[in-house]
Amino acid sequence: MWREEDEALLARLTDEIAFERLFRAQAGQDVRPPARGAGLCAVLRRLPGGSEAVEAARSDKTDALREHLEPARQIDPPPELLHHLALHHASLADLTTNSPDAFVRSITAWLALGREETYLRDLGEAVTGSALSRQDLDRALADAPLWCIDDLGERARMGARDLTGSAQRALAALGRVEEAARIARAPEALAERAARRATSLVAVAVEEALAPVLAVFAEATTQGEPSAAEGAAMLGRFVAVWRWSGEDESVEHAAIEQATPLAWAHYRASRWDALREVIAPLAPLVDSLARRIEDDPSKLAYAARAAQMLVFRSDVVRTERETLELLDRAIAICPTHRNARLMKANTFCDQALRLLPGARAPTRHDHDKAAALIDRAEQLYPGATRLPEAKKRLGEAKKLLRISP
What we know:
Layout: H1 4-27, H2 39-44, H3 50-57, H4 63-67, H5 79-95, H6 101-113, H7 117-128, H8 134-143, H9 147-158, H10 165-174, H11 177-184, H12 188-221, H13 228-244, H14 249-268, H15 272-279, H16 283-295, H17 303-316, H18 320-333, H19 338-355, H20 364-380, H21 387-401
Helix pairs in contact: 1-3, 5-6, 6-11, 7-8, 9-10, 9-12, 11-12, 12-13, 12-14, 13-14, 13-15, 14-15, 14-16, 14-17, 15-17, 16-17, 17-18, 18-19, 19-20, 19-21, 20-21
Organism: Polyangium mundeleinium
Protein name: Tetratricopeptide repeat protein
């Protein structure tokens, strides 16, 4: 005689087979599925087309079932399904090494679950019984949708010093919390808390990653000036942290702060090859920070240092065109930057001097062009070191051409 208990057992075994094949299709054939994961299939059966998708998965046809696993499509299902999806994608994230997407799906499901206050309270009371006061339970339930974010923060921090791939994926997922909150249609207060928590945890992880790099610089400064090769190698470690962190802005600030005194030492000694070698690794970081300042003028506090790094680079590029492009960009992000304006004015004077041969009269066209360049130089920086010579040569050219003053 077929009993209800037999029917329930058959359904559970069917769900276990379907889930095992689903999980291995997603994570790899040699992995062991979570012990309680089959509950996901049981909940999915309640959805339209869910039973058919579960049955198909028994025959390794998992596409239909996988379509039900995207939290973006399951924001208003039974809260039990959101809970299962949150746990399922977190399990997948532990086994995949090429993308933070599974982590983001887990965050999305947790934040969507944050709208299900009745479900969370019933679950919390069932789990804790009378072990927690009402106040402590309320606090725990308010934080429940953020547990996954806290876990990712700890993963990122623990692997930060070694710049591990696992920590990098966690960090990348934290950077997408606002995206997950939008998809989840999380309440505004919850979305803001989640974003603040993620930002704080990212900062902690990046600070942890920078700690050994900054320690190397601190030690180096006690041993005298490093060589160009040593300085470039040390700055290259900032680049590694920057790449690992997803090009975090705080890494750009730290790198430029450490690079500036090294660059000045070579600049003042006119060691141009050494200057080129030292600043070369930081070019992408400087360019990135310059773009941030161009897009957001409120970042004025960092403009002068970023502009100076562009000026250093303008000293060691190969062509005058590159020099002017870099100086233009430095002035764009820091219009009052003294060195950038001085060097650009001197470059204009040099261009004018090439048009004014001195011993013989230039063409009228070259004279007029030189005069315009000298005027631009004087407007940029009246005290430019090349300006007196350029003005003198221009005066001589006027006499040769018999141009009235």
